[in-house]
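Dear H.,

Thanks for agreeing to be a second pair of eyes. The structure we're designing against is below in token form, covering all 256 positions.
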């Protein structure tokens, strides 16, 4: 029997790599999508003993041609799509390079929409499939970031709306909303996280395990970590001005 296929964007480090390891260990073949061919190749080599087939698809999701390439592969059918690729930026919105802000929007939002749209018809035809959209607590709780938080709020809303429309089809759409995770994300964005309290950090494997358990339970929104569940719950109960003040104090400044 053929093995199910999981396509994962942004798998060369962090949460994406965690999902790649987990799906390989759980018996999936993989399609790995990123810009960096060398790191994709290294990851494929590392996972080769875990699975029988790994495809490498080099694509820049900020570019229409790159998104089109991945969409074409998804139209051929996969069991799981993990829309993990995304990035943040440092600095103030009003001084940021507009081209960089547009690239952020294209990766964090446009790619999620286009790739999900490409994957769903084959999933619906087979009556089974899972789309995992990696969002963020920043999409649930207002904070210091502007464009990044807004992009993740879009992912959450998109996932919730689509999940409702797909009810009863055998296809699920889920948004995973982690908080601060030990990955390369903040260093790449140029954001100094030295002052973040240690109890606010999560580990990649814990995020992956908890989110997949939530998905198995049918939860549309997964918030890994008790500290972040508490933060999200508090954010729904207290004035948004207080939430903004608290998240700014914890998360720091100098980010879009």
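And this is the sequence the design step returned. I haven't edited it by hand at all.
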């Amino acid at each position: 029997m053929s093995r199910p296929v999981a396509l994962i964007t942004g798998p060369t480090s962090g949460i994406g790599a965690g999902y790649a390891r987990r799906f390989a260990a759980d018996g999936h073949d993989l399609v790995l999508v990123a810009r960096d061919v060398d790191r994709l190749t290294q990851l494929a080599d590392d996972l080769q003993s875990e699975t029988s087939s790994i495809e490498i698809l080099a694509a820049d999701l900020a570019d229409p041609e790159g998104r089109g390439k991945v969409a074409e592969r998804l139209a051929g059918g996969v069991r799981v799509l993990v829309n993990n690729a995304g990035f943040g930026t440092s600095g103030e919105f009003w001084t940021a390079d507009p081209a960089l802000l547009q690239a952020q929007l294209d990766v964090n939002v446009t790619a999620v929409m286009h790739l999900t749209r490409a994957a769903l018809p084959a999933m619906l035809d087979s009556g089974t499939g899972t789309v995992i959209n990696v969002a963020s607590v920043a999409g649930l709780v207002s904070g210091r970031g502007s464009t990044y938080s807004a992009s993740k709020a879009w992912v959450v809303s998109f996932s919730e709306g689509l999940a409702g429309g797909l009810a009863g089809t055998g296809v699920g759409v889920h948004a995973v909303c982690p908080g601060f995770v030990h990955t390369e994300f903040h260093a790449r964005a140029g954001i100094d996280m030295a002052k973040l309290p240690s109890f606010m950090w999560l580990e990649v494997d814990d995020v992956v395990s908890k989110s997949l358990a939530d998905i198995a339970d049918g939860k549309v929104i997964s918030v890994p970590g008790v500290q972040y569940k508490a933060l999200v719950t508090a954010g729904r109960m207290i004035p948004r001005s207080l939430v903004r003040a608290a998240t700014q104090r914890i998360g720091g400044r100098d980010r879009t």
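Two observations from my side: The mean pLDDT is 89. The domain at 5-251 is CATH 3.40.50.720 (Rossmann fold).

Warmly,
E.
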